[in-house]
Amino acid sequence: MNIKTLAIALALSLTTSNAALAQGSGKGDKGKKKVNWPTFAKNADDAFMGTAEATRVGDNLLFYQHETGGWPKNMRLQDPLTDNVRKKVDEMKKGKRYATIDNKGTTTEIIYLSRLYNATKDERYLDAVLRGFDYLFKAQYANGGWPQFFPLSKGYYTHITYNDDAMVNVLKVMRDAAKGKAPFTFLPDSVKAKAQASLDKGVDCILKTQVVQDGRKTVWCAQYDENTLQPADARAFELASLSGQESDDIVLFLMSLSKPSMEIRQCIEDAVAWFKKSKITGIQIEKYTNGDGKKDIRVVPCAQDDAPCDPLWARFYTLDDNRPFFCDRDGVKRYSLDEIGYERRNGYSWYNNDGMDVLKRYETWRQKYGTDKAE
Predict the structure, then answer these.
(1) pLDDT per position as a tens digit, 59-95
(2) Residue 137 CB contacts under 8 Å (≥ 6 apart), including other chains
(3) 327 CB-side CA count, 13 A
(4) pTM
(5) Strand partners, 280
(6) CA angle, 117 then 139 then 258, to 5°
(7) Residue 216 appears among annotated catalytic residues
(8) Catalytic residue list contains 18
(9) What is the distance between the alpha carbons of residues 58 and 121, in angstroms, rounded to a whole number?
(10) Distances (CA, A) of 11 to 37, 113, 155
């Protein structure tokens, strides 16, 4: 049985578990959509961390942790562990793609177990956290980037990965760990120092990978060749491009840094200028039922009698002329959303309005750190 088949079998096993969870998956919640693991962990408040249920989940995380110190993605790690699930996971751990930073993998577990250690002082959780940090330190390339999976696996998985905020999520952990900010107040000084060094290298990688277009720095591609630092393709429908999806969180992260250097400040100014230049107005995404009776989406003009539509940004822009494009599984660029097939049109996020967060945050940031301000 290959890893993909095991993952599917595991997901089915976890989904059909009959055990009740504190956050609601028991009989009384029949039909209620279960939350995924990152959402469960994020919603766990401080009071919950002192409960037996929180400890049970923490013990789950100890089991799921790979020997390298990392954790997997897209699994409901909070669900009770059956013997069958344990056997399947033990088999999955032998595969090449298990531990990852993708889809909030590893960073979510480090944060949860840090909070749990603060509540329980159980040394097992402290050890797991330190092993998790060690995993992130070892996975980082010398140039400051991180691959999607570690240990390394062939294919686009080795690329430096900004996609789905993978690298930004790691850098946020490093930022807070370096400062000893909650929940990382207990970290040894040696780990804080390593986190600071890792953070510095990661920020340097961001600066080096900011794409230059027509002689001006812009934003970022979703993934980069780990050797050349050039924009790289990932899946067939994820061609090298400027990313209106991933770049917003990169800029927001940079704006969260205290005492930014002039180089970081100029990087932010250039990226914000791109967001202002590249916003798309006068359209909106409409959900409708197509001729086959299926739920579908399409791009339509903003209704003139309504309030103005929020500006949008495309997921992908061409590297040479900044033109929004879309792509199906055939890997061919197209310049209209309705030119790609139903499956990819509805199975991917092609437009977003997160650039608005960048522009709003920038106005406050500029008052303190704009390039016209003294360092």
Answers:
(1) 999 999 999 999 999 999 999 999 999 999 999 999 9
(2) 194, 198
(3) 22
(4) 0.91
(5) 312
(6) 70
(7) no
(8) no
(9) 12
(10) 12, 23, 24
Q: Say how far apart CA 34 and CA 195 lie, in whole Å.
A: 34
End-to-end C-alpha distance for the chain, whole angstroms: 58
Quote the tokens at residue 31: 């039909």
From 56, 124, 235, 345, active-site residue: 235
pLDDT of 29 > 50? The answer is no
Q: Among residues 329, 182, 140, 358, which one has the least CA distance to residue 253?
A: 358
Which residue of the set 60, 97, 103, 163 is catalytic?
Answer: 103
In percent, the amount of the chain with pLDDT more than 70 equals: 90
Residue 147 bridge partners (DSSP):
160
Name the CA dihedral angle for 152, 158, 162, 163, rounded to a multiple of 10 degrees: -100
Is pLDDT above 50 for 6? no
Six-digit token pair at 6? 């095991």
User: What is the crossing angle of helices 166-179 and 123-139, to 10°?
Assistant: 120
Strands (E), 261-357: 283-289, 295-301, 313-314, 316-317, 324-327, 333-334, 351-352
Coil, helix or strand at residue 6: helix
